[in-house]
Write a structure and sequence with these properties.
55% of the residues are buried. The protein is globular, with a radius of gyration of 22 Å. It is an alpha+beta fold. The protein folds into two domains: 7-268, Orthogonal Bundle (2-methylcitrate dehydratase PrpD), CATH 1.10.4100.10; 278-401, 2-methylcitrate dehydratase PrpD (60s Ribosomal Protein L30, Chain: A). Helix 5 packs antiparallel against helix 6, helix 8 (159-175) packs antiparallel against helix 9 and helix 8 packs parallel to helix 10 (210-227). It is 50% helix and 7% strand.
Length: 460
């Protein structure tokens, strides 16, 4: 890349050139299809556990029903592509079960995939074009987020909404087959409307999907505006009033330099097994491991000490005794208490927050959280915790989790991914429909409209 060009120009050049040497290889094809599968799983989970917000969003977009070629999952509305992207991203983030990236502090798939699939229903691209667009979206998301995190988060912004807008714009621009100039315009138009506050992790958690939903819609709209040929800011990232300065004070533009031989960032994104903020997952894994060693009773415990990294505490350490499942997704202590008692953390444990029993409350009140920055190390791929139970009889049980299950270094197996898919879709789709959805995702000639046609809910 030409180092004299501004970061956004270098990025646009790379996007234009990506995949021009032929179809994606078998590894990338499998990875992208797996990410689509995971988005469908997360969307089904979000449709089930976040009904109040979903109904409000569905009512809001119902006036668009029948006015487009793209499909809103579950209700089957035919919508303009930006509105279908909005709705499906809303579902995808409703259970906090969508994929993400450790160093990027956010969720690429829930923004990029709904935008690409909705646009694909309108323009009918090849499977290879869809795969390249999704890979581009992930790459832009992770690299741009790494350029502004953790400053973005510490200023109170929700990275999935902010960075996701640019990533969706880039992915849709690639899908539309733009050259570098129009790709740059799409990135620029995405950057100037990027938004999202992380106050949704403190209260009103059911509305958290509004940020990725807005990003998916706005990113696509940025690409569609770029297609029309309007002027866009020439230096959207590094400009004196640009993205880097606005969201981070100063960004690290070198994070956007993609060199020959670099592995695509989609491969380093994690996949979740539990419906909770990713910062909670090391504690869930630790709690499950401790439960296997000894049955845990609050009356036998003097103290439970959680040592973890500052960002985890900042996001999930403030809610001790959640009142409902929305708050439970951001409660480190509640998740640990349930993992210690049940040996797992699934939809059932999430829902139990609204009727929390006294044993769970007692365990939570025994907990103390200690901030230890050593439990987060990007270079060593560490983002974890240590949980120590001090018993009244003098015994001590301790477990350290440095890399939670689902990270690239500790990946889910194919069986676990299928189990997640079934658990999420169960109660919405019959076993036969689930298999048809699965088969459509992995079909050689994948088409978004075929998948979307299968995503209208059944009476099971």
């Amino acid at each position: 890349m030409d180092g004299k060009k501004r970061a956004s120009r270098r990025l646009a050049d790379w996007i234009e050139g990506f995949g021009t040497d032929g179809p994606v290889n078998a590894r990338l094809k499998k990875e992208v299809r797996g990410r689509i599968l995971d988005l469908v799983s997360a969307a089904a989970a979000g449709w089930k556990v976040n009904p109040v917000y979903n109904k409000a969003a569905e009512e809001m977009i119902s006036s668009y029903a029948g006015t487009g070629k793209s499909t809103g999952f579950f209700e089957g509305f035919r919508l303009p592509a930006p509105m279908a992207a909005y709705m499906n991203a809303s579902y995808g983030h409703g259970a906090d079960l969508d994929d993400g990236h450790r160093t990027a502090n956010g969720h690429p798939g829930v923004v990029v995939i709904p935008a690409v699939l909705a646009l694909a229903e309108e323009i009918l691209p090849t499977a290879d074009e869809v795969e390249k667009a999704i890979a581009v979206g992930y790459e832009v998301y992770v690299r741009l987020s790494n350029a502004v995190q953790p400053e973005l988060l510490m200023r109170g912004f929700h990275g999935t909404g902010v960075v996701g807008t640019v990533a969706a714009a880039a992915a849709c621009a690639k899908l539309l087959g733009f050259g570098a100039e129009k790709i740059h315009d799409a990135i620029s138009l995405g950057a100037i409307q990027a938004a999202g506050l992380f106050e949704v992790s403190e209260s009103g958690q059911m509305t958290k999907p509004i940020n990725p939903a807005g990003a998916a819609r706005s990113g696509m709209e940025a690409a569609l505006l770029a297609r029309s040929g309007i002027d866009a800011p020439s230096d959207p990232l590094e400009g004196k009033k640009g993205f880097f300065r606005a969201f981070a004070g100063a960004g690290r533009s070198e994070a956007l330099d993609i060199r020959e031989g670099d592995e695509l960032k989609i491969y380093s994104c994690y996949i979740k097994m539990s419906p909770a903020c990713r910062h909670v997952h090391p504690c869930i894994d630790a709690g499950c491991a401790l439960r296997k060693k000894r049955k845990v009773r609050a009356e036998e415990i003097e103290e439970i000490v959680i040592e973890t990294y500052p960002n985890a505490i900042f996001v999930t350490g403030n809610i001790a005794e959640p009142k409902n499942s929305d708050e439970a997704k951001f409660s480190m202590r509640y998740a640990l208490a349930m993992a210690l008692q049940e040996g797992r953390y699934s939809f059932m444990q999430l829902a139990a927050a609204s009727s929390m029993d006294e044993e769970t409350r007692a365990l939570i009140r025994k907990m103390r959280i200690i901030s230890d920055p050593s439990f987060e190390n990007k270079e060593k791929s560490i983002r974890g915790c240590r949980v120590t139970i001090h018993y009244l009889d003098g015994e001590k049980a301790e477990t350290t989790v440095l890399i939670p299950k689902g990270d690239a270094e500790n990946p889910l197996g194919e069986k676990e991914r299928r189990e997640k898919f079934h658990d999420c879709l169960d109660g919405i789709f019959s076993d036969g429909r689930q298999q048809a959805i699965y088969d459509s995702i992995f079909a050689e000639d994948f088409q978004a409209f075929r998948l979307s046609a299968l995503m209208k809910r059944e009476k099971v």
